[in-house]
């Protein structure tokens, strides 16, 4: 199923110096496995292809968001039990916040990189997740102790983006499933030793999260 889904995006690689399958292979390796750009340069060299690490980096920044965008119409519906938590990503030597949510089965609901951990960021994240057509309106949302979440949810209730019957839980052990899911993202980003800019972090993380959703079987080919 992964291969079928990825083939659906091959047309975005037209007019490049290298064949689309080669570009897709290097981008896929970087976004899915714990590899550095230089690891992939070496792997491609063993296959008779001389590609610089900066070329692969540009491909990742360009096509990571494309993969995320292209798989969205193919995502299976998530369920209505949301587990929300943030993790940290280093950008230019400073920690930034990666908002993430999964459902009760561990399927990715959505994600968002933010420079801040406040009410406005929390609201933006929930608004993004609610706007994704593969997500159900939540029946219950499980939160961590971040004090920014309740006022953000209250604003969404006032604006009728969330139903008034929604159940809000702040029970740490119920969020173990999203904490475990964070570990995969951390495993992929660890060899990267931090990002140089917020934009490149955001673009790369979109690709990593998209590949993670494919790995979890969330994408289907229609």
From TrEMBL:
* Pfam families in the record: DDE_Tnp_IS240 (PF13610)
**Residue span(s) of domain Integrase catalytic:** 69-222
Gene3D superfamilies, A to Z: Ribonuclease H-like superfamily/Ribonuclease H
Q: Where is the signal peptide?
A: none
> Which residues span the membrane?
none
Q: Which InterPro entries match?
A: DDE_dom, Integrase_cat-core, IS_Transposase, RNaseH-like_sf, RNaseH_sf, Transpos_IS6
Q: Does the keyword Calcium apply?
A: no
User: What are the record keywords, sorted?
Assistant: DNA recombination, DNA-binding, Transposition
Q: What does this protein do?
A: Involved in the transposition of the insertion sequence.
Task: Quote the protein name from its UniProt record.
Answer: IS6 family transposase
Query: Which organism does this sequence originate in?
Result: Paenibacillus planticolens
Phylogenetic classification of the source organism? Bacteria, Bacillati, Bacillota, Bacilli, Bacillales
């Amino acid at each position: 199923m992964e291969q079928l889904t990825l083939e659906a995006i091959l047309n975005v690689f037209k007019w490049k110096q290298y064949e689309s399958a080669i570009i897709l292979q290097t981008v896929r390796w970087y976004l899915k496995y714990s590899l550095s750009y230089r690891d992939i340069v070496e792997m491609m060299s063993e296959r008779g292809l001389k590609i610089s690490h900066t070329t692969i980096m540009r491909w990742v920044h360009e096509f990571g968001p494309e993969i995320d965008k292209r798989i969205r119409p193919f995502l299976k519906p998530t369920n209505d039990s949301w587990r929300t938590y943030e993790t940290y990503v280093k950008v230019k030597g400073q920690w930034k916040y990666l908002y993430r949510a999964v459902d009760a089965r561990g399927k990715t609901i959505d994600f968002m990189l933010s420079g801040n951990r406040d009410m406005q960021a929390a609201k933006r994240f929930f608004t993004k997740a609610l706007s994704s057509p593969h997500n159900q309106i939540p029946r219950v949302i499980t939160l961590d102790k971040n004090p920014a979440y309740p006022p953000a949810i209250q604003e969404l209730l006032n604006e009728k983006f969330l139903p008034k019957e929604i159940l809000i839980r702040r029970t740490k052990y119920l969020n173990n499933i999203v904490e475990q899911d964070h570990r995969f993202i951390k495993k992929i980003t660890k060899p990267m030793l931090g990002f140089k800019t917020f934009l490149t972090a955001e673009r790369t993380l979109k690709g990593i999260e998209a590949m993670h959703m494919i790995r979890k079987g969330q994408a289907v080919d229609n």
